[in-house]
Amino acid sequence: MRPEAFRDHLVALLKDSPDVQRVAVVEGGPLPYALSAMVAGREQVWQVIGQLADGAKHDTPTAPVHGEPAVYTAASVSGAPDAWLGGVIGAAEASVVARVEVWSVRGRRSAGVTVFFHNGERVFVRLV
Predict the structure, then answer these.
(1) Residue 71 contacts by C-beta under 8 Å, 6 or more apart in sequence?
(2) 3-state secondary structure of 84
């Protein structure tokens, strides 16, 4: 899934989350494919960055491939923001999502998630 499409998908997921008071697409700033969300009273800005599948070109979309939804772990909204977001993405059980990696679980200092798709594409969603 391309970054803009995933950002829009993420906005829809967050709008349906009971922990989110507000969510909006951030346009025209220095961060392409960004969104802002008020989550449990805390402002969060997330940027989506994409990586194409091997051999894919930017001028032609990669066809979606469906498979088993990603296994995920739900996390508290009061914990690590990326763990919570990974749980929100996983709970959607999208058949195009193969795996969700939460960065803070891997010991990275920056917060974010990597979403792997069955078609070989991936997106990196980082907290900025």
Answers:
(1) 90, 99
(2) helix
Q: How many CB atoms lie within 10 A of CB 8?
A: 16
**Tokens at 5, concatenated:** 């499409």
The percentage of the chain sitting over the pLDDT mark of 90, rounded to a whole number, equals 86
Tell me the mean pLDDT in the region 2-28.
Answer: 95
Work out the pLDDT band at 80, boundaries 50, 70, 90: very high
The model scores a pTM over 0.70: yes
- Name 65's Cβ contacts closer than 8 Å, sequence gap at least 6: 96, 117, 118, 119, 120
Query: In the chain, helix, strand, coil percent, each to 5?
Result: 20, 30, 45
- How far apart, in whole angstroms, are the C-alpha atoms of residue 38 and residue 31? 18
Residue 15 has what DSSP assignment? Answer: H
What is the Cα–Cα distance from 25 to 8, expressed in whole angstroms? 8
Judge whether residue 118 has pLDDT over 90: yes
